[in-house]
Write a structure and sequence with these properties.
The protein is α/β, with parallel strands linked by helices. 32% of the residues lie in helices and 28% in strands. The two termini are 29 Å apart. The relative contact order is 0.17.
């Protein structure tokens, strides 16, 4: 069996490594001419890290990332709403990693180059046909390639998804604009703590994603989210998905957060370059698979970046699909993969639209917009635990 993988992102590369582990041939088709370590911070959850550890990647990830010890939810005044241990600190067999997306991608890419070898850059999938014996892919330059299976792991703007679902409703913006950056900064709260503050109208996320250039510092990822519209509007500046952010536009929002552990305005001002993105997803699909062609990761289930599940679910997709393909019957494996993964990821997409676990800060903001003396006067601990725990159960 030979699998053609459209897309060399986290999901596509994890699939390539997982197929190689099982003795299945594959070719990764990456549209970019040159692979660079781009992006800002992401979190990868223990259930996904356990799968990457099974591929022998834990030492490389440890060298590039931070093992997240604790997550804290605060209001915009810095008052604590909820805190919980994360990763192995919460009893999981694997850590939660906070990591620069580009460094995670680099770890996976180098492993694929070493173990798989068959990686083609500048290879954008334009179309495909299939028959009972296999799939023929046509690249943008007209080159045909033949394989037994095609997996569309080509991201939120997936060409494979567009072919399988020509009437798909397209990208949905929820009205929230995000500014994201990373900069060396003095370590706060032990250098391994993640903070979510505010609410879904104006939210701040902070976490370290790697060692800093000087002792006592961390490469610190920050995100400021601001509601600027609603779901009836198209994404702003869609033609430029990751444009550089404007300090003048961002500062009034950053200044509204008073965090006890960090000066948010100073952090933002010290960041030499940051970017803005609309917070977008797509509606869950009725199916991913047609014959020998299926979808994976953001091509299948792009979700709002709450709850730290985008990359993690792509890893779970890849591991599930590779294990099923090892059975030898391609069509049956793809059908079983869809039956296993589509309902789970669709539920996460819908939950993220409601705020996921970060709904904790929304609820408190609604009930106590000007802060509180005691969190217990605003919301019961049992209600907070139910919000956080309920989301954790659907994402495993």
């Amino acid at each position: 069996m030979h699998v053609l993988i459209a897309g060399g992102g986290v999901g596509g590369l994890t699939l390539a490594l997982s197929l190689r582990e099982r003795g299945i041939g594959c070719t990764v088709l990456e549209a970019a001419e040159q692979v660079r370590e781009l992006g800002v911070g992401i979190n990868t959850l223990p259930h996904a890290i356990a799968e990457l550890a099974a591929l022998g990647l834990l030492p490389a990830l440890d060298a590039a990332a931070v093992r997240t010890r604790e997550l804290r939810y605060l209001n915009r005044f810095g008052q604590e709403i909820w805190r919980e241990a994360r990763g192995e600190y919460a009893g999981h067999p694997a850590p939660q990693f906070s990591i620069h997306r580009g460094r995670l991608h680099g770890v996976l890419w180098r492993a694929v180059e070493e173990r798989v070898g068959l990686v083609r850059t500048g290879a954008r999938v334009e179309g495909f046909t299939q028959d009972d014996a296999g799939v023929t892919v046509t690249l943008a330059d007209g080159t045909p390639l033949r394989g037994d299976v095609l997996v569309g792991a080509d991201g939120i703007h997936s060409r494979v998804r567009a072919i399988l679902h020509p009437a798909d409703g397209g990208i949905r913006w929820n009205g929230i604009q995000m500014w994201r950056g990373a900069v060396d900064w003095p370590a706060f709260e032990g250098g391994d703590c993640m903070v979510v503050a505010g609410d879904m109208s104006e939210k701040l996320v902070l976490y370290p994603i790697g060692a800093g250039a000087a002792p006592g510092t961390r490469l610190t990822n920050w995100v400021v989210c601001v509601r600027q519209g609603d779901a009836t509007q198209p994404p702003p500046r869609r033609e430029d998905w990751s444009r550089r952010g404007s300090l003048t536009e961002l500062l009034p929002h950053a200044q509204r957060f008073a965090m006890p552990m960090i000066d948010v305005e100073a952090l933002v001002r010290a960041t030499p370059e940051f970017f803005e993105y609309p917070m977008c997803d797509r509606d869950p699909l009725p199916f991913w698979t047609v014959g020998r062609v299926t979808l994976l990761g953001d091509a299948a289930h792009p979700m709002y970046p709450v709850g730290s599940n985008g990359a993690s679910q792509a890893v779970l997709d890849a591991r599930c699909l590779a294990a099923l393909l090892a059975g030898g019957d391609a069509a049956a494996a793809l059908a079983a993969y869809e039956a296993e993964r589509l309902p789970k990821t669709a539920e996460i997409v819908r939950s993220n639209r409601r705020g996921g676990p970060e709904r904790i800060v929304d609820v408190v903001s609604e009930r106590a917009p000007n802060g509180f003396a005691r969190i217990e006067d605003v919301i019961a601990r049992e209600e907070l635990a139910a919000i956080a725990g309920g989301y954790a159960r659907i994402t495993r």
